[in-house]
Write a structure and sequence with these properties.
The protein is mainly alpha-helical. It is built from ten helices and four strands. This is Protein O-mannosyltransferase 2.
Length: about 325
């Protein structure tokens, strides 16, 4: 058995460089002067705009094995497009929950009121895809029935698949914003790309693909906003905070499950504000500004988007039949 010598751990002096004050914690023990660029919080002293920054003090490459990140993102997106679009029109029958959501989309074309438990945004997008496909709203999407020639169901499915395709580049960019290496971020994006459930849900006229797309957008904007925490109230800080609020409004308006994304951002915001409250060097005025900014961006903006979707929903569906019997008497 060979023997080895374990190198002792190195403890750097956390005092400012050049400080002559005594180290009270260690008494007279002399600690090594921290090297240039070292910090107990290395993120605060760096440019958070760089998408290739890690928790390392060494300079990082802008290319991976000679390939730029833009090329990697394009290649991953093309792979995702193949998995979502290949022979997407092979099954020409009304499949799975297309019987429900395709019918809801047709109601928007007929402007006929209907009752459903979920918010209307994703269903209005289904209606938009049917409108762009040239559907006249007469097909009732009976489960198992073959699509007639005048219903361009392939275009409708492709429109829905675009949200599933967008998951791949957003997954990659989110991982990069969280300082994962290029290879790890690409691997995570490939996991999302080849996930069987995502592939299946993205190939039919369902609400799940828009829901996942808006959820991924919220996660991406949250990671981008997280990268700007060392530069509060800067232009990019405001940009990503407002985009985060918009994405929360979209995901909450698509399906009730989107409230989990809202809860995630809310939990992060509570923790962040609590850490600021414990920071004795932050003035109360600055702290209140942080509260106000998040209140407007993460509460007011999502609520406005949510209410606007319902307003648009009721403006379009102005024809009422027996389906309105599910609604309260005051509504009727």
């Amino acid at each position: 058995m060979g023997s080895y010598t374990q190198r002792p751990g190195i403890f750097y002096d956390q005092r400012a460089t050049g400080s002559g004050s005594e180290n009270e914690k260690f008494g007279r023990q002399n600690l090594a002067q921290r090297p240039s660029g070292f910090s107990a919080y290395p993120l605060a002293s760096r440019d958070p705009d760089s998408p290739i920054e890690y928790l390392s003090t060494q300079p990082q490459r802008t290319r991976w094995r000679g390939v730029s990140e833009r090329t990697i993102i394009i290649a991953l997106t093309l792979i995702a497009a193949f998995t979502k679009l290949y022979r997407i029109g092979r099954r020409d029958n009304v499949s799975w929950d297309e019987a429900h959501f395709g019918k809801f989309g047709a109601y928007y074309l007929n402007r006929t009121f209907y009752h459903d438990v979920h918010p209307p945004l994703a269903k209005m997008l289904v209606g938009l895809s049917e409108l762009m496909a040239g559907h006249n709203g007469t097909f009732n999407f009976k489960g198992g029935h073959t699509y007639p020639a005048y219903v361009n169901y392939v275009f409708m499915r492709i429109f829905n698949a675009l949200f599933g395709i967008a998951l791949t580049p957003m997954a990659y960019w989110t991982c990069r914003q969280l300082r994962m290496p290029v290879s790890f971020a690409a691997m995570a994006a490939l996991f999302v790309t080849f996930d069987n459930a995502i592939c299946v849900m993205s190939r039919f006229i369902l609400l799940d693909a828009p829901l996942l797309g808006f959820t991924a957008l919220a996660a991406t904007m949250l990671s981008c906003f997280y990268r700007q925490r060392a530069h509060p109230f800067s232009d990019k800080w405001w940009q990503y905070l407002l985009l985060l609020g918009v994405s929360l409004g979209l995901v909450a308006s698509a399906k009730w499950v989107g409230l989990f994304a809202v809860s995630l951002v809310g939990l992060y915001t509570v923790i962040e504000l609590y850490e600021m409250f414990c920071n004795t060097r932050m003035s109360m005025r600055t702290y209140l500004h942080h509260w106000a900014a998040r209140g407007v961006a993460l509460i007011v903006i999502p609520m406005c988007i949510y209410m606007f979707c319902f307003k648009l929903h009721f403006l379009i569906l102005d024809r009422y039949d027996s389906s309105a019997n599910f609604m309260p008497m005051g509504f009727q």
